[in-house]
Amino acid sequence: MRKLLVLALVGLVAQLIDGSLGMAYGLTSSTLLLVAGVAPAAASASVHLAEIGTTLAAGVAHWRFGNVDWRVVTRIALPGAVGAFAGATLLSSISTEAAAPWMAGILFTLGAYLLIRFARPLRTDRVGGRLRGRFLGPLGLVAGFVDATGGGGWGPVATPALLVSGRMEPRKVIGSVDTAEFVVAGAASIGFLIGLGSEGFLLPTVAALLIGGLIAAPLAAWLVRIVPAQLLGAAVGGVIVLTNARTLIRSAELDGPARPALYALLAAGWLAALVFAVRALRRTRRARAEAAATAPAAAAGVPAETSDGASVSEVPADLAATGTPTPR
Fold this sequence. Notes:
Elements: H1 2-21, H2 25-35, H3 40-64, H4 70-93, H5 96-118, H6 133-150, H7 154-165, H8 170-196, H9 203-226, H10 229-252, H11 258-293, H12 295-299
Helix pairs in contact: 1-2, 1-9, 2-3, 2-10, 3-8, 3-9, 4-6, 4-8, 5-10, 6-7, 7-8, 10-11
């Protein structure tokens, strides 16, 4: 019972993070399950089975709020399902000893990507045009494969790529990626079922993760108003990097002064990312405050200036929002 409560707490924390960033449910859950001693394939299989329920609820909510571009969903979900099935089959076929450093390496890379991603604002000033299938197809294929083999990665790979393209509204990026993830999670679960059998799924773990995630869903909507996504993303990225670095260091059999020196270097990088995130957050808030203060002058047709002497219309669009827009 104590272990199930801990797993439910894992699902709750993962959903809180995912609800605030629009990504990282599987990334966080898999990392914490690996720390708890769950085998890599079983961890990824259980997380994806639980995600079928959480992504279904998220997809319905996004559809009701008009946050889904169905053209993008269909073009990214089907290749994503193929990649997820292939990744699940690969992970199921290798031993736990070989899978552990592989999975830790993927999670470490994604954690580092989160650090870099949330250390600075993301430009969204190129909204317009249409995303082509030749871009969406390979993106879905890669994101689905990484998601299944790493226990998470669909959101961290697909969401930033679509945001950076600037071809979609941020709210529709989040909604479309979350909706497509239902298909990806289902395909990954089928792949694990074929590769591992029904015994590969830890059903109590799945139930605990699902319950925790459902409880956290409404809390995430409140959390996103309190904690800036920019800071949360940098903080979570650092936790994931340091946690999975332990597995990689152990696999590399590093001993002596090299181990503490590497941990210190990673911690310094995490601290630097947090500092940059805070600076970007302050810069964004300052620009938004200046824009709000000069709005009456702009309405009267008078060119307003910011504290840097630039016209308000010249303020970079990457200062218009903080971190990732409000997700599910």
